Amino acid sequence: DTLSLSAPVLPSWLAFDAATGVLAGTPSNAEVGGHDVTLQVSDGTVAVAQSFVVTVGNANDAPMIESVAVVMATEDVAYGYTLAASDVDGDILSLSAPVLPVWLSFDTATGALFGTPGNAEVGRHDVTLQVTDGTVTIEQSFVLTVIFKDLDGDTIPDSWELAYGLDPTLDNRSVDSDNDGLLDVDEYLMGSSPRDLDTDGDGLPDLVEQRNGTDPSVDNATFTDTDGDALPDLYEIAMGLDETVANGVFTDSDGDGLSDYREYLLGLDPLVDNSMDLDSDGDGLLDQVETAVGLDPNNPADAVADHDHDGLTAREEIAQGTLPTLDNRLFSDFDGDGLPDQTEILAGTDPAGDNRASDCDSDGVSDLVEYLNGTLTTANAALTDSDADGLSDLYEVANGLDPQVANDPRADSDGDALSDLYEYLNHLEPHVDNRRDPDSDAYGISDPLESLLGLDPLDATDAAGDPDGDGIATIVEIASGTSPLIDNATLLDSDGDGITDLSEWLSGLDPEFDNTLTDSDGDGITDMQEYANGTLSTPNEQIVDADNDGLPDLWEVASGLDPAVDNRFTDVDADGMSDVAEYLLGTNPLNVDSDGDGISDGVDPDPLDGAVVIASDGDVGGDGEVAVEDALTALRMAMGFVTASETERHHADVAPLINGVPAPDGEVTAADALVILRKAIGLVSF
To answer: Whole-model pTM above 0.70?
Structure first.
């Protein structure tokens, strides 16, 4: 027969499969004890039952933690949390705290975790609590975060504010207690003092260190180099250089031929011309001179070398005013006697002495005449120059001059701008205007002179050229009596005023007039000062800054400040805005309220717009409503219990009322608090 299976009596935690006859289930702690079970089999006619008792034995269950940890604490405020746990078996539980910060205590009897964190405990702390029934142990681990106490909600810990003498009940987020350009909240975040312009005393103001990304609480004077130019920031600031702009080996701020870095190594001022007293290699040649003529100021050997192979050492050429890197044999004439120095040296005469009338070969013909005729050191009686004026007797007689009366070789008998000597050399008449005879290119320079100078007599454009690269045109040099083949830019100063002719010429000044005290561009700075600073002919009154504080002297004088005193970190009118900020914003450094709107520049959102006025409306808190709390704040201000901002004082200054309208008197008194209270409770409105 086909059998049918069933389980008419079963506890709820058991299940019976009538197809397979399987009885299965998992008892919990609640099922501990005996359970009746009856199973039945039927063939459709007869049913047979099996009854029995299933006994569930007790097993140990793990305890459970029922409480949620408190994970936040506040500095100087008592912390508390109680661990709660249970055990379904009713076992006795034991509590412990294997991981605790030292400022916390744990009561194993009650599960109480308690303690009061100080400022040193601000931060994160690991905590682990354990519960055990003697067999199974479970734990609760969490991170307890301690935040600093901040009564005024300005994100600055009260303890820090108290340490620096600040009011922990006053919002200092917009306050700069030491007027160094950094708000107190920034100083807290940086680790600097709100009471010291230079917290670490390294000579770098906190503001500078904040800008440069260095630690204002660590002495950075000996190693900080923000711009990477090998010059420490402290040195650059002390010398008036910008510590954020690379100077070093690539810059010569004072133009004395020494880089800023070299002057730093030598202990010199990079903004003072040190060229006149520095000879690094001890060769008798100043560094600036060596640099200017292409020599090495650190190599003493180059002073005695002949760099241009003209027979003269560098020292000899510099002594006589010629370039040691330019062959001077053809035209170098230190003594101006018409005889090239090299020729005089070879002839055994002194290149520093006037040898026009000398006669080295004792033939009765002067050395100058012989040099001009190519017979120097050879007896040439036929070329006798009786009056030793450089013009042969034969030439003088032929041209109506007296061979017994000396004529200045530089004299110009016919006024054609060509000396008698020049005309003699070029076979011209000394009594005939030869300026255009011949002058094939008609540009004012005779053909013989152009040929002598290596110019093209048929090319008019070369008269305006500058073959020696000194910035002076050939025709100007000939008119000025200088050689267009020698760089005269750094040597020639006709009027002896300390400004080279080239500089005067390029600036539109007269090179024959003393310009020491003139002011050609009308900027209040003499031409001599501008020449020394490289700003000749450029109006500079807006950029001169004698004390290197970033404030132009003209502005400092106009503003009543001393242009010789560093005002980078001063606040002369004590309005909360530094003098540098006043210059940059265009406000008056001697006026607390530049725009006259009743708000000091330091807190005025627009210190140049007088239309921005804070209303005397009683809304001290600035929340748009006048409440009793505003009246109480005004009363505390009047009694000196709180230090109010200028904005708060403007809102609070409402008394007296005249015709129902506030007439502020500039003070916050109990009368103001009373008027605000009356407005808050609806007795007055304005």
So the answer is: no
